[in-house]
Structure to design on (614 residues):
C-alpha cells in the first residue's frame, strides 16, 4: 500500500491522482477505465486498462512521480472527499402548491405552462419560481405486468414504481361501513393491483399495520381482520346526546340556539317533572365540555397517525399515494387546523398524493336515522336536522382538503365503493406543482390563504391547495440543500440538470456475503464553478442509496467532494470525475438510487439502477 500525489501521463495529458493505492483483485476487478483512491474519488483515464499486473506497475510510476511533482503553493489539494452518513429530515423550503386542471369532461389537462397560471397569497400576486408537471401514468412495464402478469420474467428485478399506503380510519368507522369498505378494497387488490405496485396497510388507531409488500394474500388477510376501534363509545340512549360539532357550537361559538335545543332535548330525555333552568344548563354544558375534549383528542390522534404514515410513505423511492378511507372527522380547534396544514406541507414537500373515499356511502338525511330518539317539538327537530346536515358536511371537509391540497381525488356520496376505490387508487394523470417564495414572510405561524386561477380557464376546473401556515423559524441554506437531496433520494424521477452515469459492480468473497460498488461518473463541464484566485471552486454532494425490492431503505452513503481546480486541471478533465461508494451487503436484489447536488449552481442530477446479486 502506498500513499502519495502523482501525475499520470495518458495520451499526452497529465491527470493528478491522490490517495492510498492497492492491487487486490476486489479493488481492480473489471474496472477498465477508473483509477480509484481510498476516498472514493477517481479521474477517468480513457483507454487505460488497469489489470492486476498493470496496477503494480502503476504504483511504481506513482511513487516515482510523487517525488518529481510539486505540491500546490497553498498546500490545498485540488480535489478532496469526505464521507458521512446521510441523514434525512423533512424541511419546507418553497411553498409548493399542487394543482389539477380538468376539462369539462373531467379529464386532467397536461399541456399548460407556467405563464398559464396566476397565483395569489392573501390576495397578493406571487411569482411562480418553480414549475413542474408530474405525469403519473404507469410505464409500459407496469401496464404489461397488470394485463399479463404471467408474461413478465419472474427472474427479472421489477423496480417498484408506485407505493400505496392504504389507510383505514378505524377510529371513526362503524362496523356497517367497514364491511363494505373491506369488500371494495379486496376487489381492488384482485383486479387492479399491478406487479410494480407495493401496498401497505395502516389504521388511524395504529393497531393494524402491514409494511409495503406485493403479497396480495397477506394484504387481503389483514383487511379482512380490520375492526372498528373507537376511542370512546356513547352509551345507548345517552342523555344528553351531544355531537362534537354541537359541543363546539355551544362552548366555542356560544351558539344560544344550539344550547337551547340541547336543553330542551335533555329535559325530555331525563323524564323528570321539575328541574331548574340552571341545573339543566349545567348538565348540557358539562356534557358539552366532555364531548369537546374527547372530540379534540380523537382528531389529534387521527392527524398524528396520518402524519406518521406520511413520514413512512415519504421514505419510499417512487410514486407515493396515500389512500384514506374514512367517514370523516372534524378539525375544529386551532391546534387541529395547524396539524392539518403541517400534514399538507409535509405531504406536498414529499410529493405524496392523498386520495380520500367517504366510507359513509350515499348521503342520507341524519334526521331519518331510526336509531335516534324522536323529539317532542317539531321546530326543535328541524333545527337539530340542520345542525346534523352541517355536521355531516363538516366531517367530509377534511377529506376534501387533504385530497385537493395534495393534487388527489375525493370520492363521496356514492354506494358504489368498488368504483370509488378504483378511482382513489389512481392519481390524476397530470399534476402541476407551483412553487413560490413568499416575499417578506414573517415567521409567525399565521395562516395564508392561496388562490390559483388560469389566465384563460374558460370551461376548466382548477383544484388546488387552499392555504398554508407560515413557518415559525427561518430555514437555512443548509437545511434547504438537505431537504432537496432527501426529496431526490426518495423519488424515482430522473433529474438531468447535468450529465451523470451510474454503474454497479459486485464481488462475493463467500456465498453469504457480497461487496457492492456504486460508481457515479459526473460530467463537471456543466457545473457552475466559483473563481477563487487561481482556482475553480465547487462542492458536490453525492448520495448513493440502496433499497430492497419492496422499496425499503437498506443503506446509503453520502460523500462531499470539495473541488479547488486550477485552469489546466479543469481543462484536462474532459471526461469528468468518478465517485466510488462501496457497501457490504447480502446476496439479493437491490434498487440503486444515485443523487448528485452541485452546491455552487444549486443544480441536481439523479438516476436509478438495479442489481441482482445471486
Amino acid at each position: 500500500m502506498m500513499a502519495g500525489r502523482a501525475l499520470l501521463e495518458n495520451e499526452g495529458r497529465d491527470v493528478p491522482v491522490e490517495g492510498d493505492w492497492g492491487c487486490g483483485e476486489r479493488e481492480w476487478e473489471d474496472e477498465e477505465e477508473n483509477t480509484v483512491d481510498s476516498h472514493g474519488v477517481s479521474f477517468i483515464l480513457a483507454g487505460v486498462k488497469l489489470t492486476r499486473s498493470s496496477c503494480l506497475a502503476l504504483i511504481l510510476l506513482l511513487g516515482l512521480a510523487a517525488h518529481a511533482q510539486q505540491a500546490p503553493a497553498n498546500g490545498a489539494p485540488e480535489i478532496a472527499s469526505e464521507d458521512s452518513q446521510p441523514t434525512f429530515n423533512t424541511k419546507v423550503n418553497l411553498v409548493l402548491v399542487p394543482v389539477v386542471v380538468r376539462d369539462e369532461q373531467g379529464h386532467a389537462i397536461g399541456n399548460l405552462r407556467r405563464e398559464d397560471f396566476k397565483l395569489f397569497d392573501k390576495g397578493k400576486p406571487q411569482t411562480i419560481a418553480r414549475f413542474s408537471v408530474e405525469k403519473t401514468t404507469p410505464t409500459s412495464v407496469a401496464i404489461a405486468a397488470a394485463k399479463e402478469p404471467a408474461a413478465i420474467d419472474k427472474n427479472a428485478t421489477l423496480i417498484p414504481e408506485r407505493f400505496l399506503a392504504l389507510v383505514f380510519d378505524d377510529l371513526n368507522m362503524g362496523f356497517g361501513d367497514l364491511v363494505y369498505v373491506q369488500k371494495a378494497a379486496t376487489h381492488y387488490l384482485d383486479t387492479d393491483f399491478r406487479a410494480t405496485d407495493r401496498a401497505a396497510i395502516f389504521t388511524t388507531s395504529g393497531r393494524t399495520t402491514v409494511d409495503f409488500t406485493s403479497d396480495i394474500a397477506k394484504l387481503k388477510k389483514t383487511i379482512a381482520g380490520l375492526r372498528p376501534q373507537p376511542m370512546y363509545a356513547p352509551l345507548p340512549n345517552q342523555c344528553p346526546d351531544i355531537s362534537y360539532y354541537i359541543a363546539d357550537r355551544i362552548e366555542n361559538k356560544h351558539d344560544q340556539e344550539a344550547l337551547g335545543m340541547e336543553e330542551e332535548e335533555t329535559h325530555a330525555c331525563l323524564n323528570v317533572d321539575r328541574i331548574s333552568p340552571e341545573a339543566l344548563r349545567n348538565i348540557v354544558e358539562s356534557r358539552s365540555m366532555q364531548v369537546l375534549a374527547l372530540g379534540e383528542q380523537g382528531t389529534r390522534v387521527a392527524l398524528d397517525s396520518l402524519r406518521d404514515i406520511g413520514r413512512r410513505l415519504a421514505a419510499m423511492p417512487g410514486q407515493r399515494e396515500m389512500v384514506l378511507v374514512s367517514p370523516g372527522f372534524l378539525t375544529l380547534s386551532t391546534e387541529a387546523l395547524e396539524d392539518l396544514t403541517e400534514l399538507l406541507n409535509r405531504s406536498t414537500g414529499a410529493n405524496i398524493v392523498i386520495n380520500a373515499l367517504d366510507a359513509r356511502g350515499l348521503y342520507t338525511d341524519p334526521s331519518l336515522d331510526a336509531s335516534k330518539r324522536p323529539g317532542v317539538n317539531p321546530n326543535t327537530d328541524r333545527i337539530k336536522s340542520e345542525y346534523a346536515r352541517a355536521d355531516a358536511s363538516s366531517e367530509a371537509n377534511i377529506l376534501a382538503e387533504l385530497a385537493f391540497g395534495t393534487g388527489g381525488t375525493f370520492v363521496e356520496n356514492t354506494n358504489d365503493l368498488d368504483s370509488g376505490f378504483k378511482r382513489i387508487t389512481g392519481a390524476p394523470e397530470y399534476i402541476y406543482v407551483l412553487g413560490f417564495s413568499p416575499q417578506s414572510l414573517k415567521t409567525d405561524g399565521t395562516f395564508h390563504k392561496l388562490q390559483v386561477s388560469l389566465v384563460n380557464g374558460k370551461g376548466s376546473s382548477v383544484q388546488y391547495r387552499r392555504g398554508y401556515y407560515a413557518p415559525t423559524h427561518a430555514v437555512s441554506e443548509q437545511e434547504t440543500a438537505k431537504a432537496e437531496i432527501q426529496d431526490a433520494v426518495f423519488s424515482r424521477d430522473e433529474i438531468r440538470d447535468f450529465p451523470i452515469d451510474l454503474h454497479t459492480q459486485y464481488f462475493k468473497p463467500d456465498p453469504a456475503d457480497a461487496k457492492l460498488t456504486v460508481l457515479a461518473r459526473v460530467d463537471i463541464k456543466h457545473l457552475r464553478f466559483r473563481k477563487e484566485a487561481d482556482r475553480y471552486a465547487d462542492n458536490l454532494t453525492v448520495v448513493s442509496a440502496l433499497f430492497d425490492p419492496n422499496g425499503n431503505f437498506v443503506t446509503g452513503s453520502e460523500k462531499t467532494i470539495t473541488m479547488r481546480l486550477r485552469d489546466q486541471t479543469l481543462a484536462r478533465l474532459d471526461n469528468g470525475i468518478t465517485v466510488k461508494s462501496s457497501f457490504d451487503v447480502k446476496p439479493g436484489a437491490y434498487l440503486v438510487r444515485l443523487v448528485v447536488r452541485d452546491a455552487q449552481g444549486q443544480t441536481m442530477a439523479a438516476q436509478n439502477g438495479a442489481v441482482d446479486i445471486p
Observations:
- Confidence is low (pLDDT under 50) at residues 1-73, 87-93, 139-147.
- The domain at 95-135+431-474 is CATH 2.60.40 (Immunoglobulin-like).
